[in-house]
Model the fold of this input.
Amino acid sequence: MNVSKANSVAVRLDKVRFTYGDAAMRFDVECRAGAVTAVMGPSGSGKSTLLNLVAGFETPAAGRVLIGGEDVTGLPPAARPVSMVFQENNLFAHLDVRKNVGLGRSPSLRLDEADDMAIAEALWRTGLSGKEHRLPRELSGGERQRVALARVLVRNRPVLLLDEPFGSLGPALRSDMLELLLGLQAERRMTTLFVTHQPEDARRVADEVVFLEQGVVVAAGATDSFFADGAPEAFRRYIGSDFTKFARKPT
Ligand SMILES: Nc1ncnc2c1ncn2[C@@H]1O[C@H](COP(=O)(O)OP(=O)(O)OP(=O)(O)O)[C@@H](O)[C@H]1O
Done:
């Protein structure tokens, strides 16, 4: 499944149940096709688990995961139309930038001319031209995340899962990465689930917010409604006294 604006797909967790020891989770939520959904909530509320269920790294005890209306619950991660970027360790340490990106085209790294063109374009798009032959250890943290995003671009899957991808970057770099993400998103319209602890990041890039508490979606809706009067109470509590700082100013 390739991505174009025309074929964005919704992601649905349909009465999904999942348990880790004492942590029982129950997800029943839909993320809109082509939108960025910020997945937020306190530590341990189940944000990474929700993404792992969509990616196929975890399997529900009950319920279904649907992507574009197709039931993918029984499919392994590689067969799902999904790319995922983690906070770190997205790259293979012994492969250079070109090969790390090339894995998005061919897991065996048999790369033809068309693959090389796609890789060069993705590296240009992510500001990495000229760094093709560097190893991950020869890059900054921000550059490593750019390589991971370049791989997302060449994979060209309709769903993008971002698990705090910029969480270890400083504020200026994080801001640059969000800008890059917005640019890529304007082009590709991937259905993006973006785990973040930063309300300002959610405000900036997300169309919608899904808010979790103790393994359950307790609020979901348009981002604007989360930063306005009448915002969901659980979300206000989570943000605490800083809420007014983030809240929408009257126009
Ligand atoms: N591999 C695991 N084995 C057992 N329990 C786990 C495992 N991974 C997560 N858990 C538990 O499942 C619950 C949800 O964890 P999860 O990592 O999804 O939360 P999170 O919202 O992403 O947290 P954080 O913001 O701290 O990353 C927590 O209670 C956690 O302790």
